[in-house]
Design goal:
Layout lengths: L20 E2 L9 E6 L5 H28 L21 H13 L5 H20 L5 H21 L7 E2 L8 H9 L3 E9 L2 H11 L3 E6 L6 H9 L4 H6 L1 E4 L2 H4 L4 H4 L3 E4 L13 H21 L3 E5 L6 E2 L6 E2 L5 H12 L5 E9 L28
Parallel strand pairs: 2-11, 5-8, 5-11, 6-7, 6-8
Antiparallel strand pairs: 1-11, 2-4, 3-7, 9-10
Helix pairs in contact: 1-3, 2-3, 3-4
Length: 383
């Protein structure tokens, strides 16, 4: 099994899988999703988010692992009275002035507030580019809810279990993510290639079979983008897909409310296992628990799992500026194959190609977390 991924796999006209296997016979066609997006984030946002959340990640990761080790869950925390500053905002001015109000009241760390405002500005600019006459209302509505839930998680941080099932009530986090990202996609010029494969996958799920999508990964919004492109034709897949998620999306304060609306198997990336050496053993134990959860899910059948086999996001070639899929980690692919084989249920593995990097591009260079970056923020209390 090769760990390389030839470029034709990534092309919109591809009809033959460059990387595919199945425990039962399956079509060689590659499900392909091509999205035309209203550019939502500038490089400035990427730099600010990277600086802010690399600084918070070590503390958040440590606390997440400790919570998992001790068996603490979100529902076991004392109730915190939630501020209604953002949910009651009726204009952009009220929404943004609420940031200062919450910072002054000590309920919102200044660096988190700065990140929230930067996201607001870029989200507003991107939605306005769509030409939607209702853009002002759309931005205010979506950002009011986003601000409110970012603050809520600062007040009372949510802790993810190894297997997290999407929260649909009393607040529907799934639809929150759908409604937030929807205005950023130009559906007139976006498409799903080889759509027939998704109907084929639905039939296999109805028969009790498991399906794994081995995919490239380009943006933090990939799970929502996939659901948005399939919500009309294949709503069952859109709502029930399980995503193998790295720790960033369950510790990053601005990612967490969106992650809460997805079915997730939470793992720690091998690439960053030793970023904080003293946490490496706890991360390995957490990954073992997640692996057991996945095995149990697959034994039940009728599961569809998405995994980014490269362990990270695609980045452009530094010389040509062309985007290409990061190389798959062959051990990750082999792990999924063995899990399916041992589940006792028929299973199928399909390659999935995504081309949607414009919506939330990663930093051009990978950045390793260093302890010295943490010192300005170690006073923040997220317990």
């Amino acid at each position: 099994m090769s760990s390389t991924l030839p470029l034709p796999f990534f092309g919109g006209t591809c009809t033959k899988a460059a990387f595919s296997f199945s425990l039962k016979s399956s079509s060689p066609l590659v499900p392909f999703q091509r999205l035309q997006l209203f550019r939502s984030t500038s490089r400035t946002t990427t730099r600010i988010r990277s600086s802010l959340f690399h600084s918070l990640k070590a503390k958040a990761t440590a606390e997440l692992v400790q919570d998992k080790e001790s068996g603490v869950v979100a529902t076991g925390k004392p109730v915190v009275e939630h501020s209604r500053t953002f949910i009651e905002a009726r204009s952009e001015q009220e929404l943004l002035s609420g940031l200062r109000k919450e910072v002054d009241a000590g309920r919102l760390p200044p660096n988190v507030a700065a990140g929230m405002e930067e996201v607001y500005q870029n989200y507003r600019n991107a939605v306005f580019q769509s030409g939607d006459p209702a853009a002002v209302g759309v931005v205010l509505s979506n950002m009011t809810v986003a601000f409110d839930h970012w603050l809520l998680d600062v007040e009372d941080p949510f802790v993810f279990e190894p297997y997290h099932k999407a929260l649909r009530e009393p607040f529907d986090y799934y639809m929150f993510g759908q409604n937030y990202i929807r205005p950023l996609i130009d559906f007139r010029n976006s498409y799903v290639g080889n759509l027939s494969l998704f109907y084929e996958i639905e039939e296999k799920l109805k028969q009790g079979h498991n399906v794994v999508l081995i995919s490239n990964h380009q943006t933090e919004a990939d799970p929502i983008i996939i659901s948005l492109l399939l919500e009309k034709t294949n709503p069952h897949i859109a709502e029930n897909m399980i995503f193998v998620a790295g720790d960033r999306v369950i510790t990053d304060p601005l990612c967490k409310p969106f992650s809460m609306g997805r079915n997730l198997l939470c793992v720690y990336s091998k690439k960053h296992m030793y970023d904080i050496p003293e946490l490496a053993e706890m991360k390995r134990k957490a990954n073992t628990r997640s692996l057991k959860e996945m095995a149990l899910l697959l034994r039940g059948g009728s599961k569809i799992v998405w995994i980014a086999a490269s362990g990270g996001r695609d980045r452009p070639d530094p010389f040509t500026e062309e985007w290409y899929p990061a190389l798959f980690d062959s051990s990750s692919v082999d792990n999924m194959r063995r899990l399916i084989e041992h589940s006792g249920t028929p299973g199928h593995v399909y390659p999935l190609a995504l081309l949607c990097y414009d919506i939330m591009p990663p930093p051009r260079q990978k950045k390793k977390l260093e302890k010295k970056e943490l010192s300005p923020f170690m006073g923040l209390d997220y317990q």
